[in-house]
Automatic annotation (TrEMBL):
SUPFAM superfamilies per record: GST C-terminal domain-like, Thioredoxin-like
Domain of life assignment: Bacteria
Domain Thioredoxin-like fold: 18-114
Domain Metaxin glutathione S-transferase: 164-225
Residues forming coiled coils: none
Name of the protein this chain belongs to: Glutathione S-transferase
């Protein structure tokens, strides 16, 4: 049995980490049975989530987990796509993971209100005399990564404008189709859904969320994907819109 390790449900989402969500959706796409287990990043071979135990073989990083699934189980996440479409799907995935994801990080970790409401609680179980220092250190490291990504070097309205350009590119690519590359989901849909849902969760208020809500097809896409891959989850955004 495959074991997938992640943070677990939280922040109004079935899984806190977008990268764990990506892998969870891809496992479901591939029709593979798995069990979900909670873990923190230091437990991973690469110090990050997700990681997966497949019969004693540990695979870390969502992209390498996808490659493992394709190689071991013969599942092609981009089945039906020609060479050009596969290249486009890869380019969109890189844009999402190396640009839009960091906008999400900024809205959760750098915004003081959202940090206090969400990520700060990761440290609630730490002894009181160390808790605040660990919170500050973690927030500083994430903010430093946000700076290194490039988005953190800009004023808040400028970084949101840049993120909105990536959102617009996704919206144009999706158009009125059910999935990014056409009539059937591909591997990049798992990535896009994970990050868009992470932005749209009603748990956090942010300008990034408001700008994303302006792309109606992306909102509908996230709702459809949530219903398809997490039908048992009570998606608060859908309830809010009803």
């Amino acid at each position: 049995m495959i074991s997938l390790f992640g943070l677990g449900a939280g922040f109004g989402l079935p899984e806190i980490s977008p990268f764990v969500t990506k892998t969870e959706v891809q496992l479901k796409m591939a029709g593979l049975a798995f069990r979900k287990q909670r873990a923190m990043p230091p437990a991973s071979p690469k110090g990050q989530l997700p990681f997966m135990d497949d019969g004693g073989e540990l695979i870390a990083d969502s992209t390498f987990i996808r490659a493992h699934i394709e190689r071991k189980y013969g599942f092609d996440f981009d089945h039906g796509l020609d060479v050009r479409a596969r290249a486009q799907a890869w380019a969109f995935e890189r844009m999402i993971e190396h640009h839009l994801y960091f906008a999400l990080v900024g809205s959760r970790w750098v915004d003081p209100v959202n940090f206090a409401k969400g990520p700060a609680h990761f440290f609630d179980g730490v002894p009181a005399d160390r808790r605040e220092k660990l919170r500050e250190d973690a927030q500083f490291r994430v903010a430093e990564n946000y700076l290194i990504s490039g988005l953190g070097r800009h004023a808040p309205d400028e970084d949101i404008d840049l993120a909105a350009r990536s959102l617009r590119a996704l919206s144009v690519q999706l158009g009125d189709r059910p999935y990014l590359m056409g009539d059937r989901p591909c591997g990049t849909d798992a990535t896009a859904f994970a990050v868009i849902a992470g932005i749209l969760t009603p748990f956090f208020e942010s300008e990034l969320r408001r700008r994303t809500e302006g792309f109606g097809n992306l909102v509908a896409y996230a709702d459809r994907m949530m219903a398809q891959y997490f039908p048992e989850f009570e998606w608060g955004r859908a309830a809010e819109a009803a």
